[in-house]
Amino acid sequence: MQNSVINSNLSLNVLTELSRSLFLKMTLVQVLVGIFLYVNCLMIFTFLNKAVFREDTRYILFAQTLFVDSALMVLTDMLLIVNLYQYRIHMIPCIILCTIATIFTNCTPLTLVAMCLERYVAICMPLRHADISTSRNRCFGFLFIWGLSSIAPFFTLLAYLFVVPPAALFTYALCSAELMMGEEWQAQTRAIILQILFLFMIIIIVFTYIKIMIAARAASSENKKSTNKSLRTVILHAFQLFLCIVNFLTPYIEMPFWKVDFLVFHNVRFSNFIVFVIAPRCLSPLIYGLRDEKFFLLLKHNALCGLTAFYKHKIKEQTNFVL
Q1: Phi, psi at residue 151, to the nearest 5°?
Q2: Which fold has domain 33-291?
Q3: pLDDT per residue as tens digits for the range 11-47
Q4: Do residues 109 and 74 lie in contact, with contact meaning Cβ atoms separated by under 8 Å?
């Protein structure tokens, strides 16, 4: 009898500790997501507020990254909360949400590659940059990015609908993208598609880095600063791409801990979410929002609600923008 009481108290203490730990971690994640979304929304407003940004390919790609990352952050945060609190949802909205989230996940690294190519054209082919960066070519580029981003998700969706019994679509489950890969061949085919896609992206990033590095060595002292800055931008994009690639491996990292210790599994999942979901998407605002002088001045002006006359004068002086 006494042993039963002791075991019951221990179980209660473990559950209490787990609930407290879960609450603290969820609070931390929501604060980080809130800050991320606030900064992104401010940057999207800054982009939309000036026509000069809306006509520049570099800033248009940056704005797409902000939009995609913000939407992905909302979806993944929502799914994280639902799963951690063991709330089951209907399978049809679940597979729709997972498909959209996977498309957004693929779109971010592909947009990073497009940004690297844009820097390559601007640095290595400056005379042709205006002819290449036309609105028509931008439309084709965006269609290409979204088309490639959709290959693996739509394959996973169609394969799932092909093998799953119709009755399973009307059940409730803990929503996860892994639910759509019940057969081993589905997971293997999806992995092959992603490996080919990321190999393609890595080759392009390495190519642009080498070309810009060669241009940096041959550049005059006047152009060397701009070229070196573009080189650092490509390096940062390569680091972002690495974190995005690792994000696809996190389910394989987490599952062994599920069988060992439930609390350790949650700790690993939270760590992966912060390091491989939040962190790489915080780099885009850093690379273009804070390192780009024109954008940063307008961003600071908007963040201060246009109250400082000093920044108005500074922006007009350096960018010729009318506020």
Answers
A1: -60, -55
A2: Rhopdopsin 7-helix transmembrane proteins (1.20.1070)
A3: 555 556 667 777 787 888 888 888 888 888 888 888 8
A4: no
